[in-house]
Sequence to fold (271 residues):
Amino acid sequence: MAYGAAPAGAQPNTGSGGADGGGGGLIAIAVLLLVQVLIELATLGYDLSQAGAGYLLDALGFSYSHFVDAPVGFFGYDTALTVALLALVIGAFNRGRWVRPAAVVLLATNAYGSAAQLINQLTGAHSRDTFAEPFGHLLLNLGLIAGIVIAIAVAAVVGATRNPRPAAAFPGYLPPQGYPYGGPPMPHGAVPHGAVPGTAVFGGPAVGGPVPGAAAPQGYPPVPPPAAPAAPPAYGPVPTPPAAPHSAPAPADAPPAYPSAPPAPPAPPAS
Fold:
């Protein structure tokens, strides 16, 4: 089987790596990731304002010696989360394809922890009373809610701007080349001698050329049907030539019709 060109409208498959052409969706994802980074840094700023610069060791996950009375804290997990968010922001501005699934997974994980923290606060007897008091606690809890909203928004953007996978190109079929009368292969589209275009030859597929009587493409005149072969000329019975008239036999002493040959010369005498 020979393979022709891809059908009209088919696009080549570029694979799953490399750059992504959906710049608008990635820019929106990058902006949402930056908002999440600002929320994390705001939480760190609140903890530093309450415990001082020594809280940086706690923020990096190397110590837990500083206590901050707050519903939300910035710890080693938040440091790793912030670094990963910044990497995703850089990748989004560079239009990396890996940013979309990575952002959905990372923010979904963070949203799960934020939702669990909110449920624990709203269901606890003491934490329910301090959910919005003092005002700093309310701001920190609003940051948890914002993280959940951002995760949902990023998932929606990824789903709305996902590039559909291009359909596989269907190979065009070209009829096999025949060998009429034991000759060399014919070029594609050629019609063997004596064959009518659009008809099968030697039990194979139809030879090249339009099918007689078929509808022509738009903008082209219709294909006329093949002309009927000319009828052979009509012949009557062959006439019999008349018989030759009988002539009288020639007399015996009549001279021959043709002169006789001269006599042979005498043989030379023997020496």
Summary: Helices lie at 23-51, 55-60, 76-93, 99-123, 125-129, 135-160. Residues 1-6, 12-18 have pLDDT under 50 and may be disordered. The longest helix spans residues 23-51.
